[in-house]
Amino acid sequence: MAKPKRAGIYVRISKDRKGEELGVQRQEKACRELCERMGWSVLKVYPENDVSASTTSKRGRPAYTEMLRDARDGFIDGIVVHSIDRLTRRISELAGFLEEQQKHGFAFATTEGEDTSTAGGRMILTIKGAVAQQETERMSERINTSLLQRREQGKPHAGGKRQFGFKEGSCFQELDQAETELVREGHRMLMDRNPKTPGDVARFWNSCGSTSPQGGAWTIQSVKRVYRSERTGGIVTYKGQDIGDSVYAAPLTREQWETVQALLDSRATPAPHGSGRRKHLYSGFLRCGNCGSALRVQWATVQGRTFRRTFCHSGQRGKDGRLGCGKVSRKYVWIEQQLNEVIAAALSAREPQRQEAPAEDFRGGIGLLEARIRTLRGRWKDGRMADEDYFDSLAHLREELRTLRARAAASVVRRSRTESDAPAVWADETVENLERRRAIVASVIDHVDVFSVGRGRRKPPETTSIRITPASG
Ligand SMILES: [Zn+2]
Q: Half-sphere exposure of 322 toward its Cβ, with a 13 Å CA cutoff?
């Protein structure tokens, strides 16, 4: 190929590198340097701004068209680009470009060094073009090619682990009736007026002979996973964002699922520091009446009898960082009985709390938002709205919707719980219920000062040997 006398330089920044005007200057500089090295003279620069060379770009590229026309007409006899992906990201277009080059005999070079005068060079170029196209497709989160389109149509991502409630291998499109029944029954148990815990649900499912998707027995954690999964509520997500309802059946409705989330959230108590969970209802509430440091509660065995005692520890710093005086040591059970009576009395005397906004108040707002999303989607599907605007608005509306739904769900849980159910929660003395009972304690009692009653007493302690400071508010 003869040395071109009049080369054209083609530079382009695509939309995905928006704002990088410098990018064009860098491309041009590199191309000019290449021309200088090869002894090509530069006749013209063809700058293309803000246009994508990918398949998703519908707009034409005027500078590219002009450059090809100039090459065909012999106005220029060489073309220099920074790299193939600047020239084009479509294989078909690259093939067309190479054909033109063969036919009209103009020279072509990139700063990355492909030599198109040989078959091998052209092959490399074609492969590079193919790679550039693949990159475009990977990069592209646009609807016409992507997963998001499926999801927007309410079709959940079909991959991932097997999920309880759905038929194996059905890509979450068909329900397993028996499993779905268990999910629904578990939901009823959790939402019952006398509520059961995820632990109860695990025991129930195990007693039915059901196993977790991993094949083992149900545990509190694996049961929670079932109810935490959006799929269980027929909710389609994309990158962790709720983007709509599945077109296929789900074990629970969205409302049921959201109510369970509020329930699980309200139960999630931060793990107490120190070793494991608390085992005693009033530990943490008891203070030494002598020195004010936090009392410990421990099992003790004295003369063959095992009982719980609470004491001021003088040998070890407590959670409050203080060393106790060691002067108070009491039987825990007696204190627990006293305090239980106080809590029960406080609960029965409690005025039924005013209900806050009933769920119906949220329904209106939720319906309104849903309608706005439908309108938006309609406009977008009809091509009356740009992708970016659509997804931007959609994200905002979804976020509002999510907040409103969470509040509606929380209000349902609160109404079913507070007044009527606090005594029921209180009456459930199972270990699983301990943290919820402690929450009730905290609503009645701030702390309890415990005084020494001396050793070896036979008589029961005086009620004045403890002093209760009620919770404020
Ligand atoms: Zn003390």
A: 13
How many A from CA of 323 to the centre of ligand 1?
8
The CATH architecture one would assign to domain 7-139 is 3-Layer(aba) Sandwich (3.40)
pLDDT at residue number 307 = 78
The rounded percent of the chain whose pLDDT value lies above 70 is 71
How far does residue 325's CA lie from ligand 1's centre (Å)?
4
Mean pLDDT calculated for residue range 393-400: 79
Residue ranges near ligand 1 (ion) with Cβ within 5 Å: 288, 290-291, 312, 324-325
C-alpha 320 – ligand 1 centre gap (Å) = 12
pLDDT at 9 over 70: yes
Q: How many Å lie between the centroid of ligand 1 and the Cα of residue 444?
A: 24
> How many Å lie between the centroid of ligand 1 and the Cα of residue 453?
13
Gap from CA of 301 to ligand 1 centroid (Å): 22
Q: What pLDDT does residue 276 have?
A: 43
Q: What pLDDT, on a 0 to 100 scale, did the predictor assign at position 15? A: 52
Distance (angstroms) between ligand 1 centre and the Cα of 294 equals: 8
- Tell me the two tokens of residue 79: 């073309």
Domain boundaries, the chain: 7-139, 158-267, 286-352+427-470
User: Considering all CA atoms of the chain, what is the largest pairwise distance in Å, rounded to the nearest integer?
Assistant: 116
- The confidence band for 201, taking pLDDT boundaries of 50, 70 and 90, is very high
Give 329 Cα–ligand 1 centroid separation in angstroms.
Answer: 9
Residue environment code for 146-156, b if the CB has 16+ CB neighbours within 10 A, otherwise e = eebeebbeebb
Residues 6 or more apart whose CB falls under 8 angstroms from that of 414 comprise: 355, 356
For the whole model, what pTM was predicted? 0.34
- Tell me the C-alpha distance between 408 and 361, whole Å: 8
Q: Which residues pair with 175 in a beta bridge?
A: 166
Average pLDDT, the chain: 76
Q: How far is the CA of 471 from the centre of ligand 1 (A)?
A: 22
158-267, what's its fold? Hect, E3 ligase catalytic domain fold (3.90.1750)
Ligand 1 center to 315 CA (angstroms): 11
